[in-house]
Amino acid sequence: MRVLVAEDEEILAELVATGLRRAGFAVDTVYSGDAALAYLGLHDYDVVVLDRDLPRVHGDDVARRLVASGSRTRILMLTASGAMEDRVAGLDLGADDYVSKPFEFPELVSRVRALRRRSARPVPPQLERYGIRLDTVRRSALRDGRELDLSPKEFTVLQLLLEADGGTVSAEELLERAWDANADPFTSAVRVCMSKLRAKLGEPALIRTVQGVGYAL
Fold it and tell me: Is the pTM value of this prediction over 0.70?
């Protein structure tokens, strides 16, 4: 799951991003409305956590343009104003959810997850194939009843492979969906993560390397 945090308070933006990464999301941060539009035009985000009071391009205008473009990215508006009129105005702009500052972080994570489930590419609460059972809500994984101790990145990669249902997932797609925008496209991060994931899954081996194409279960 990939999330963009657009928040002009840089410390708050990085705190939110760090917490979301710990919850297993790939997160990018921007601090202005024009930067948000640039990132949204470059990457396929599941959710944007959007502050309304952004500099240069107002958050409301970002929401309007995103909705007008027909993007499937869900919008969670984050604002210092919790008045009912402001919430209604934000939702009328096309926001899918609205959270007022200050907020409880577990609630924010839960709302982001809920928006992901409502996206154009819904994820079932549980994925079960090849003896693997993934609970996408509790973020737990089992193989043949044995609990797997996966890092957030390993969990996301395994989820993407399970969602492909036997199809091949390219390294480029894994980088796009599981890493943030700072990931070097020439990095060995996917290969290293895949090696660790294979070791944790154990024998018999489940993940195949499709030469020149990607990976498949």
Answer: no
